[in-house]
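Supplementary Note 2. Why include the ligand at all?

Several targets in our set were suspected to adopt different conformations when bound, so apo predictions alone were not considered sufficient. For every target with a known small-molecule partner we therefore ran a joint prediction. The input for pyridoxal-5'-phosphate is given below.
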Amino acid sequence: MPRPIQATIDASALRHNLARMRQAAGSARLWAVVKSNAYGHGIQRVFGALRDADGFALLDIAEAEALRALGWGGPILLLEGCFGLDDLATCERLNLWHVVHDPAQIHWLGLRSKARAHRVFLKLNSGMNRLGFHPAQYRAAWQRLHELPSVGAVSHMTHFATADGAAGIDEALESFLATVEGLPGERSLCNSAALLRFGADARPPRHDAAAVLGEWVRPGIALYGGSPTGLAEDARQWHLQPAMSVSTRIIGVQQIEAGAAVGYGAGFRAERPMRIGVAAVGYADGYPRHAPSGTPIVVDGVRTRVVGRVSMDMLCIDLEPVRAAGRAAEVGSPVLCWGRDAQGELGIDEVAQACATIGYELMCAVAPRVAVRMR
Ligand SMILES: *Cc1c(COP(=O)(O)O)cnc(C)c1O
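The joint prediction is reproduced in token form.
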């Protein structure tokens, strides 16, 4: 019998989330963001469920090649653009659209001769100060691109730093609209947070939803059912369904006395006599090592907590609530780390919050040794 840990990818949840994002996008076209191997879900695995998207956005040229090999003939956008001159030939061969965020990339485009071969998204730094041209340099960069023989259409793009928080998008939106004012070209602004909070079905409605949405939106995390705000209740309120579940089983049980310690470093001491379950999942599977005692986990449909330090291949669980609910809580009992199984559900964002991180990181960290199946 293989070690019982398993990740399950739910195609119907992916399709549902894509339909939700379409609603929020109004008439804008939709890039399904599948960077980092579809946020850890696997590009090959999600492709069938997400192929109704208008395009796929990612960073690695190898992932773009994988999509073409799967038969995707539609648009693919490289979100970080080209990393060197050689990549431009690959873009021509695979017909990839690419982001231009730095003068070096414009220089490389100037060295290519094939007429109008490149479809680019010029990126504005609207305040995040990560990638993109400063507003004062943006229009000159657009003019240079526009005049290059190798460049076809030039679109406009920016990325919000605070779409998920109280600061919102107003300042960045104003900077973007003022900078691109009067320039021809399609526009793309929204990640999942902006799309859900300020898109076509925003509550309360925004008078400028059409400007926020532009011609293309770029949701990532919401397609996988994770909350872009980090709050599990937001994912529920937006009717997102978890696309990934990680499950395992109890492989050992200990009955311990009050005051007895659990795990490396004796990081947890029993408040009273208690039954401890040992689950076959650890940080080498991608479960966060810094998950503190108290991190939620589900055994046989009953919500309980991790106790003691997470080790490489195992973690320990308080089985008292499971016993109290009348379940056996024994070797073989099903354990749900996040997602949903036949017995219950646990939001990845709840686990992430307990670990002071975000669902994105947990999804992307699931290790190659974890077997994956489709549901
Ligand atoms: C990752 C990424 C997105 C998607 O962000 P989510 O928060 O996952 O929706 C959109 N645009 C760019 C440029 C990105 O890098």
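The domain at 244-346 is CATH 2.40.37.10 (Lyase, Ornithine Decarboxylase; Chain A, domain 1). The radius of gyration is 23 Å. Comparable summaries for the other entries are listed in the accompanying table.
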